[in-house]
Amino acid sequence: MKLASNLQTKFTEIVAGEPGTGKSVALGALSEAILFSGQSNLPFLSYVDKGFSAQGLVRLIRDALPKSRQHEVIGLVLENSRQHCKNPFDVQLGMKYPITPELEYLVNIGEILCVNPDTGTPPNSQDCRQILGMIIGKAYETNASLAPVRYAPTLEPSVDEALDKTGIRLAYDSTWWSKATWYEVRDLLFFRGELAAATRAHYQAMPELSDLQVYLNDEDVRA
Fold it and tell me: Which of 83, 180, 193, 195 is deepest in the core (most CB within 10 A)?
């Protein structure tokens, strides 16, 4: 089978070596072989790079595209800032609860935060994971049905703009809007094709790590 053959739908390459031994050059060559194999659309290609070598490839590909398609190639240097922060409790767009791998990921994060620095393990590891699973589940249940987060105008300007542009805001009276939730706003925007704004609304509907402390005192958990 040739490199970048259409018979293979996924490629995973791991390159290890000391600095200066050509890892970036090798990965760049592999990526170019996939990109320039006669395809009309760019394949999905993702890099996680501790350095900046991947940025060179990103610029090379972007500069080779017409301006109308340059948005298809993105290179982002992450920063420890509010603009680049991510809520680990964000689930897939359209969902209200995490699927099993997402829930396991969240429990793992919680367990790491519970680790005792002196022992390197959380207190009572088995019970710790069980409790974490319960309070995470309660956080999602609360946000999904018991007490969903209410929509707040001006909090997400792109959402407000999309609501006005699509006419959704005028379709409901002030009483409805006073009780509207971010989940409801998300779904309305999604069905109108406003995916970016729907995603922003979705983020606001999600629980956060700081919410878990409240559920530690829940009767079901304490029992």
Answer: 180
